[in-house]
Amino acid sequence: MDDDDELLPDAMEKGLAIWDGMDLKRKEKCWCVCGLCINDKTGKVVGNLFDEQINELSGRKFQKALAKAHGERCGLQKVEIVRKYKFPEIKGCSYFPEGNIWRRINEDYRQYYTNEVFRVYHQYEGESLINFSKTQTSYEKRYRIYKYLIKCY
User: Fold this and answer.
1) What span, in angstroms and rounded, lies between the C-alpha atoms of 105 and 19?
2) Which of 69, 93, 103, 112 has the highest CB neighbour number within 10 Å of its CB?
3) Cβ distance 54 to 113 under 8 Å?
């Protein structure tokens, strides 16, 4: 959680109810219950809903359904699994995107997707690492960040 995140008051309760409703076999394969976010100004979901059957799909069908479901998301993560995947300590590298860790975890475990809303997304004006405008300047900044990360990792 950072400064553009706000969990809804019932987010943990909803996530836990979803987790408790899973059978043991599914729980062993999952590391996260992934829900939706709403925009702080409009109250609308940021992005698309997940396909209702996404958790039953696999292979190419799963990848296709996941690709259609773009937007801001909120994952309620299983701490014991996250702790197994350490953030690297790279000399001279002061920033390492957590998405790299999530991608590594996703290679070994699945997320359980739900259309429940867990988080309010506060979108601030101006540039940030994830809020680039479509200008040449922002592309140049993005390029420098990726170049830096490649050098560090």
Assistant:
1) 18
2) 112
3) yes
